[in-house]
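Collaborator request, handled under Task 6.
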Amino acid sequence: MPDNQRLEEQFVSHEAERIVFEKLDASEQIDIDVQTDVLKIVQGQAEKVSVTGQGLVIQENIRVQEIKLQTDNIAINPLKAIFGQIELNEPVNAVARIVLTKTDINLAFTSDLIRNLVENVDLNVDGEIISFKPQHIDIFLPGDGKIGCNATVLLKSQENTRLLGVTVTFRPRTNSHPILLSSVTCTEGEGMSVELILAFMQKIKEIVNLPFLKWEDIAFRIINMEVEQDNVILMIEANIKQISASQIEFLN
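Structure tokens returned to the collaborator:
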């Protein structure tokens, strides 16, 4: 919390930090900076809200190493703002920088939230629908800006069900290039046909090209991704109806 804040800004920011801290499963550090004054609070306005946090456990098995988020002008509930509760009267736009460690990413894949997201994926392979159900996923960062994935998946069609082990490495989409597949290696099972690989890549393309994802009251999109030796850094644009989180689903 900045030392040069007005008294009312300090109070609202402190109360907001206390309330958010109580709702988190764990936190190494959380700082909230609400820029406003008494008149604007009474009018239900704030110039912006900045949030900085480290080691935040949002819910079971969902952890971020670091987050920096800043909103534009927001309309707030003036009565609740006096007590540090930032309840939005109108949706607000925000930009966030989120750092995830390799451990954070793999932990997230064990959460109910992510499991529900990837539980069943249907692939259209030359007109045949094949259910693609992950059994185990392990993310690794091999360097050179790549992301790697060791996965065991269950492939189920009308005719048969088979287990497939695969290792995939790719470069994530950035401002300068789309997703680039580096390698695909089968480690278990009969292998993958070219048609199956193309169907999987088409599904990834569909997901990546969705205009927004939704996390409860937050619609967001990833505008850039940087891969470092031990971390993945996401730049995200978001439209926030309320500041809360429990489940992710795709927005059509």
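The cover message to the collaborator said: "DSSP finds six helices and 15 strands in the chain. Residues 7-108+211-250 form one domain. Please let us know whether this matches your experimental observations."
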